[in-house]
Amino acid sequence: MEWPQTLTVVYLVATLALRIVALGVVPEGRRPGSSMAWLMLILLLPEVGFPLYLLIGSPYVKGRRKLIQDAANEVIAVHSEGLPQVPQAANPDPALRSLIAMNHLLTGLPCVSGQHLGTYDTAEGLYAAMAAAVDQAEDFCHVEFYVMAWDDTTDVFFRSLESAVGRGVKVRLLMDHLGSCQYPGWRQFLRRMTRAGIDWHLMMPLQPLRGRWRRPDL
Asked: Which of 63, 98, 103, 212 could form a disulfide with 207 if both were Cys (CB 3.0 to 4.6 A apart)?
């Protein structure tokens, strides 16, 4: 048998075997619609489907990110130890109690009673209120946003963060990379926070050229 024929046979056998394996592996821990989409891609275009599945197809957290998640789970377990799964004053119906149990199983966090501190109907009022809260910080200030930019509306808030850093408060800010980088002045925004002394970090960064890659769907 000539080499081209041999390679063709090996290719056909290998792709057939991988297709069969995919039928058993891909649906595990995945919704039917997602499983069907992956299987169609792998069965019809194995040259594209297999590498793509290996890159972003796993429904599980692995590697360094899993180690970080395990460490976070340990911290959560320590701080939530002894807390009831449902607040003592609460009396949820069976359906809600089932949802609370599922949330505790998935996150390790118990259901706790909350506080209603007010509703703001304007962005200006919201950021002014947050700035006032930052002005009262003495030790640390932790900020988390999905979408954030430093503009005329948010300036009062970031000035408060900058002032807090100046008086010795440890200011940390976490924001979503994809949600925030779409706004004009993104790089200037990061430089301004750095100059202000804000310890900022990107949530789920997508910077493969810098070796920083996090799947946003996990």
From this structure: 212
